[in-house]
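# nightly structure sweep
# worker-07 picked up a monomer target from the shared queue
# config: single-sequence mode, recycle default, output format = structure tokens
# input follows
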Amino acid sequence: AQLHLQNAKRDGRASEYAQVAERFFHTTAGYEAAQYIAAWHYDRSEFGLSARWYLELSESSFVPSNVFKLA
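# output follows
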């Protein structure tokens, strides 16, 4: 998962981040990719897609140790 995330960062393609987020969501790399995709959609005023990812993140029982989760 981490290698796929590194490749997505290197290439800078949102589609690669989305693949990491969907395939490896319950890993640190997948969670980070999902955060990136949520922000990417938000920056492009695609609020519905952004909300979908943020909702997925907020409802996840997996939270990496380096991420704060609001109650």
